[in-house]
Specification:
This protein has about 375 residues and is of the alpha+beta class. The chain has 9 helices and 18 strands. It is about 25% helix and about 25% strand.
Length: about 375
């Protein structure tokens, strides 16, 4: 299988002069992308596409190919990567007889991209019917713009009555992107990078910088130099805040939670949501064996009207079990869904909503649970 890593690097950047060959943490920005591309185990070529002789020289110095220079008509401020890539593919086929089956597009402006991001995209491409796999980062679900008078206008209007972030489905933003992987045949037909069947890998928000201004450059260099320290701190934070059964002493406003739990009003919920849920014989009297009230995180698998729902408890146990499905609810935590504890609960046991399970993970969970229903 022929897989081409394509690195676009035109000259003429105005907001950050000579951006692609400017030193980033002591090395040309382009060089970092090339060195990373050369570690991609499934690729057979690394090509830099540029209109600049100077950028081409740097690219060759660090081990990339520059088979031709990009035409000037595709090197202006309004130039689209898709058009430049189509031009390169046509020349490679005509002059070398080279026609890759997949394209891996790596932007130089994503210096905090990691090899694991590329490999995760490739894995998703292999396991699904996607024509494009790209990367995104979490963002706030409510997006605003300003009108001519400076008033804020909600851009992504939805019929969600609450302004609380927990009431909205998770939102994501293209993060540069770190990675695009394209099926060449589909790309040649649709002639655009984001195609009809596009799937995404979610990346860390803190790493999702796109170098487009001096402020972003300075901030990215700081993050890059301290990335290992930040990673360790986040890993430790993840271990401290993994899903678990929080005890009464851990939960803010426990008495108020108990009042809400005992209330006659049913909870409003939808499938895929993750809730703190009270388990046990009677509402309000569950015990963990030590005489302490507790909650557990659970995914809502199916609803039965307003009064009951089918839930799957989550655990952070690392023990292997045939009825446990890895769901990765929290960064740094190998959370699992306990299908062996699948149960119908009164919706009054749903205490606090904490988020959603990703659609593809939820689909896997429902498939695994199907044989038990």
């Amino acid at each position: 299988m022929k897989i081409l890593v394509y690195i676009p690097a035109r000259g003429g950047s105005k907001r950050i002069p000579r951006k692609n060959i400017r030193l980033f943490a002591g090395k040309p920005l382009l060089a970092r992308a090339i060195e990373q591309a050369k570690t991609v185990r499934f690729a057979d070529r690394v090509v830099v596409d540029t209109d600049s002789e100077e950028i081409a020289a740097v690219a060759k110095k660090y081990g990339a190919e520059v088979p031709f220079l990009r035409p000037k008509r595709l090197a202006g401020d309004r130039a689209q990567v898709a058009d430049a890539l189509l031009c390169l593919l046509a020349r490679l086929k005509k002059e070398e007889g080279y026609a890759p089956e997949h394209l891996v597009v790596l932007q130089t402006t994503s210096p905090l991209r990691e090899l694991r991001d590329i490999e995760a995209c490739w894995k998703l491409m292999q396991e699904t019917d996607a024509d494009t796999v790209l990367t995104v980062a979490p963002t706030h679900p409510r997006l605003y713009h300003l009108d001519r008078r400076g008033n804020i206008i909600l851009a992504n209007k939805r019929a969600v009555p609450s302004t609380n972030i927990q009431a909205w489905p998770p939102a994501y933003l293209l993060n540069g992107c770190f990675v695009y992987i394209l099926k060449t045949a589909a790309f040649l037909k649709q002639r655009k990078v984001i195609m009809k069947n596009t799937k995404a890998i979610i990346c860390d928000k803190w790493r999702s910088v796109d170098l487009d201004s001096p402020e972003e450059w300075v901030a990215a260099e700081f993050l890059f130099r301290h990335r290992e320290e930040i990673g360790r701190d986040l890993e430790q934070f993840g271990r401290m805040h993994s899903p678990r059964a929080p005890m009464a002493k851990d939960f803010d406003g426990w008495n108020e939670v108990k009042k809400r739990t005992h209330a006659e009003l049913p909870r409003l919920y939808t499938v895929r949501e993750i809730w703190w849920c009270r388990f046990g014989v009677n509402i309000g009297t569950e015990q963990d064996g030590r005489g302490t009230n507790f909650l557990r995180p659970a995914v809502i698998l199916r609803g039965f009207g307003a009064d009951a729902c089918l839930v799957v408890p989550l655990t952070t146990s690392a023990r292997v079990h045939p009825l446990r499905v890895s769901v990765g609810v929290v960064e740094g935590c190998e959370a699992r869904a306990n299908l062996s504890q699948l149960r119908i609960v009164d919706t009054r046991r749903l205490v606090e909503k904490v988020g959603f399970l990703r659609k593809e993970v939820f689909a896997d969970m429902r498939k695994a649970a199907k044989g038990l229903l």
